[in-house]
Amino acid sequence: MINFQISIAYLKGVGPARAQLLGKELGIFTYADLANFFPHRYIDRTKFYQIKELQNNSAEVQLVGKITSMRSVKQKKGSRLVASFMDASGSMELVWFRGAKWIREHMKLNVPYVIFGKVNYYNGNYTMPHPEMELLSDYKKGFKAAMQPVYRSTELLSIKGVSNRVMQKLMQNLFQECKGKFAETLSEKLMVSNGLIPKNKAMFNIHFPQNQELLSQAEYRLKFEELFFIQLQLIVKNLTNKKKNKGFVFEKVGDYFLEFYNKFLPFDLTGAQKKVLKEIRRDLNTGAQMNRLLQGDVGSGKTIVAVLSMLIAADNDYQSALIAPTEILASQHFNAVRELLQDMEIGVRLLTGSSSKAQRKVIHEELENGTLHIIIGTHAIFEDKVKFANLGLAIIDEQHRFGVAQRAKMWMKNELPPHILVMTATPIPRTLAMSVYGDLDISVIDELPPGRKSIRTLHKYDSNRLSVFRFIKEEVARGRQIYIVYPLIQESEQLDYKDLMDGYESISRAFPLPDYRISIVHGKMKSADKEYEMQRFVEGQTQIMVATTVIEVGVNVPNASVMIIESAERFGLSQLHQLRGRVGRGADQSYCILLSSVKLTKEAKTRLQTMVETNDGFKIAEVDLKLRGPGDLMGTQQSGVLNLRIADIVHDSKVLYKARKAARDIAGSEMGHLDPDHRVVWSTYEQIVRDGSIWMNIS
Ligand code: ADP
Ligand code: MG
To answer: In angstroms, rounded to a whole number, what is the distance separating the alpha carbons of residues 607 and 567?
Structure first.
């Protein structure tokens, strides 16, 4: 068996100069890199056409025939080379605008060639510019790749003559040298139960597909393999963490929980809330630390799940912390929780940056001596002076605003880390969550409380602004409050501020004092001023809130029923959805109005259309994933997990689910570890952990 880690320079047809070029342009340094450089598309050359069958369309076709003559034709600049090409059915022309000298020297007359390319129809003649050509005799000798692979290339590679043809040739040399032997990475059982072809056959057919069906099988096998080993790593990590990260055992559901549940729960829990609560309760008494991500669209009722979880902690004599990203959100949580628990004998306090010294002193004492059960606040809770008697559960709202470091800091204060529940209202498509957070446990509240009126979303062009203003006046007359949001995008910050201020002015003119009072909040304001303006709106002192996207996260103003989004075409889908989630929290019909210019890109149209069509955050997230791709959606830090070579989590979700299931079956069962058949899976796993990628280790 050959060593796939040797330099590509040693491969026949490469040499030092080309090796350097391949490394620089395509990241191909070794035999392994080349073998795993998969084509990005294929041209079907399973059929030979006759000249008389040619059509005037854009397909690439192949023919067999002979060049009968060549001539130079003068044109404005230089000349072009024209060859007459014939088969039994007729004749056509081949044309070269460059490289005439080389063609004249190398092309043989009256010898059969296989030619391939796009055909143009011109002056009653078919012509093929710059055809790919191969002697029929050579064609017959080579690997018969009926489906033509096309490899990604670069300008420099083309200039230096490393054409697709050359790439194919190099691939042939590689396969000849290694006799097409690639080490199997999957067990027989896995291949049988998932309908996978062996590695060797897959590698051959991905580069030299014999027909459409074998190509599909090869792609499927390699995609499965890629996704399987990523999932295996995530699942093993999850299981190891559970073994390693011991956690407090919350054995019982006691008086706090039961009293609240039976006497004070203001509504029946939805099925989804019950399911999630069960998952959390199970986590809390396994003896392992809980690390759970709770996803639930805006308004799906995550707060009550948090409260019930904190009561279980209290039942087991542990303290809980609920942490929000801003002071406003922390105090909203505090008010909501205090109201829910008002008739219960349980301590709840709020700690934020604005808490007074005296308040802090009391809170610190109560946390340290264990009399305070529930603390709600901002990251002020992480301050070093805060010591918990026994912090058992930390709930973090809106994970996007919190660094992992901050999370880690919390459990430094304990002998054991607290259980962690991260709540997020940003729906992540299931396939993406699996790939990025596959090592966490994930719960999803996928059902809204009953009787919720869905928000009506309308898309209007700027020219309809006056009618929108009339509508605002009607709603304000009915006692409702309105948000008007402007985009703020870093690259055009100055312009955006100008838009915001111009907008504010024109809104102030359209909605004058004393009938209308307007708040404005934007990122350039001091945070105390922002909080003050927000508070005025929360308390209903102002009816209109003009803002940049700072209001994005979590504020709850049930009386606000209209969300106007200016230049909506400039917002991303998830942002639009988050913004819309600010309304629809009260009993009234709520509206979201998307204002845009008439000129829209195709993508912008899709975004606005999606918003108008659905309120379902997960559906919206799926569209977003399709439009932007996984890297953009998750930011760069996760690109490692998502840097897939052949699979694609948007299009290959079915393969992903299968691969995850297979990985879970093997990692989670004793047989999965002991069965000698699976040994190859685990040795591959070890290599991947060592080398960082499945595509390094094929020998
Ligand atoms: P979010 O998931 O956005 O944090 P909240 O927890 O703030 O949602 O809940 C939104 C609203 O729905 C609150 O007013 C809450 O009281 C109400 N709610 C939550 N669960 C239910 C339920 N099962 N039945 C009825 N109303 C509910
Ligand atoms: Mg919430």
So the answer is: 13
Task: For residue 322, give the ligand nearest its CA.
Answer: 2
How many C-beta atoms lie closer than 10 Å to residue 529's C-beta?
13
Query: For residues 8 and 26, what is the distance between their CA atoms, to the nearest angstrom?
Result: 12
CA distance 360 to 421: 25
Q: What is the mean pLDDT of residues 656-660?
A: 94
Ligand 2 geometric centre to CA of 553 (Å): 9
Cα(518)–Cα(512) distance, rounded to whole angstroms?
Answer: 9
pLDDT tens by residue, 346-399: 999 999 988 999 999 999 999 999 999 999 998 888 776 788 899 999 999 876
Look at the block and give the residue holding tokens 């106007």.
Answer: 564
- Domains located in the chain, CATH noted: 46-144 (2.40.50.140), 255-284+300-424 (3.40.50.300), 456-614 (3.40.50.300)
Q: What is this structure's pTM?
A: 0.71
Measured distance CA(35)–CA(180) in Å, rounded: 10
Q: How many CA atoms lie within 13 A of 426 on its CB side?
A: 19
| CB-based contact 198:188 (threshold 8 Å) | no
- Dig out the tokens for 616 from the structure: 């379902």
The 10s digit of each residue's pLDDT in 247-274 is 899 999 999 999 999 999 999 999 999 9
Return the pLDDT at 699.
41
Residue 305 CA: nearest ligand 1 atom is: 6
The ligand with the least distance to the CA atom of 299 is 1
Evaluate: CB of 313 within 6 angstroms of ligand 1. Answer: no
Residues ≥6 apart with Cβ < 8 Å to 338: 348
Q: Which two tokens stand for residue 550?
A: 């700072």
Q: Please state at what angle helix 212-244 crosses helix 679-691, rounded to 10 degrees.
A: 80
Tell me which residue has its CA closest to atom 15 in ligand 1: 301
Q: How far, in Å, from the CA of 299 to the mean position of ligand 1?
A: 5
Ligand 2 centre distance from Cα of residue 126 (Å):
66
